[in-house]
Amino acid sequence: MADQSEAGGFLHPTLPSPPASTIASSSVAPSILPSPRDHPLKPGSSKESNFIEYVERKLLEISGRYERRFNVGLREHSGRSEQTVPSNGYENFGELAVDLENVIDVIWVSGTPSLQTPYLLNVALAVTTYLPSFTFTPRQTIQLLQKLDISFSSLLHGHNVETGEALPGFDGGRGKLTTTEKVRVRGLVERTRVAVIVAAGKLGSADGESRVTETDEALTTDDDMMEGLEDDASHGRWEMEVARVYERTLVDLGAALDSSNNNGYG
Could you say which of 49, 58, 134, 196 has the lowest number of CB atoms within 10 Å? Predict the structure, then answer.
């Protein structure tokens, strides 16, 4: 593996977002996650500080842009004049999912389990919080949740579950999720599965109607499966994907939390 201590080393607070990973489906491996650093970030180092500042700033920006979507059409008074409040809020969940995926990539590249677990939990919570406010977009939602699923499952095992590559920070039994973290992950996994089922169930119903923009169309019509979403074959395909949300993580957590001797995950 190439040395990534400089590239992706978090030397600057304004580091660029990594390139989007290859779109993955349940039948496609291995590049859903980027390659992590060779070694975890040193606690208290400037690189760790820059990483924390960057990720927290990005999550705050995403939260702010999500909130601004509700300000569309509001007007403010300036002296005697009145003008529309500008808004660059998210028009659809696909836009938001792209930004969250970029944050996941940066978190993963850090190669630091003590940072990866809490920040991935923050991203997972954001997905569950934001998802109900948008019309359900299957491809973008499933792609984002697959990336989270692979991330959590890999952290539970200490290696990338798609490639088998050992993860940095797990030598000597370090890096493993605590029981508290496992319980938090399972709670979010279960909540997210319910949220996705509810959102998918509203697709096309009166309750699920919302604005469909040109961006929505661009995000969906470029995928052959999305073109046939309303026909039985395509709809069945996404129903199956929805049922498999967080499938890997759920199975791994069951082994980690429910086995009497708790072997295999520490």
Answer: 49
User: Which are the contacts of 148, defined by CB distance < 8 A and separation ≥ 6?
Assistant: 104, 120, 123, 124, 127, 246, 249
pLDDT for the residue numbered 152: 97
* Distance (Å, whole) CA 32 – CA 28: 9
**pLDDT tens string 3-18:** 444 444 554 444 444 4
SS3 76: strand
Confidence of residue 239 (pLDDT cuts 50, 70, 90): confident
How many CB atoms are closer than 10 A to CB 176?
Answer: 18
84: three-class secondary structure by DSSP: strand
pLDDT at 212 over 80: no
Q: How remote is the C-alpha of 236 from its chain's centroid?
A: 24
Question: Which residue matches tokens 């820059």?
Answer: 50
